[in-house]
């Protein structure tokens, strides 16, 4: 995956995870809340990977 697709996928997972957590909280579904938290974390990691790829590319381009 490229850095842009990592960042987009990450943001999508963050938003979906937050939505799942909200639904889980509203319905008192602990499993849904846990799944949402995991998905949100996955999204944050994906976004960080995308940002790291950008930094590496920037450093290589400056060489």
UniProtKB/TrEMBL annotation:
Region listing for Disordered, in residue ranges: 1-63
Compositionally biased spans, kind Basic and acidic residues: 51-63
A Pfam family per the record: CsbD
Annotated ranges, domain CsbD-like: 6-57
Composition skew (Low complexity), residue ranges: 15-25
The family this protein is said to belong to: Belongs to the UPF0337 (CsbD) family.
PANTHER family named in the record: UPF0337 PROTEIN YJBJ (PTHR34977:SF1)
Protein name in UniProt: CsbD-like domain-containing protein
Origin species: Rhizobium rhizogenes NBRC 13257
Record lineage: Bacteria, Pseudomonadati, Pseudomonadota, Alphaproteobacteria, Hyphomicrobiales
């Amino acid at each position: 995956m490229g850095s842009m697709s990592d960042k987009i996928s990450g943001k999508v997972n963050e938003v979906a995870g937050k939505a799942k957590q909200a639904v889980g909280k509203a319905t008192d579904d602990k499993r849904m809340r846990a799944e949402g938290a995991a998905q949100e974390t996955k999204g944050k990691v994906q976004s960080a990977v995308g940002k790291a790829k950008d930094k590496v590319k920037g450093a290589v381009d400056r060489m």
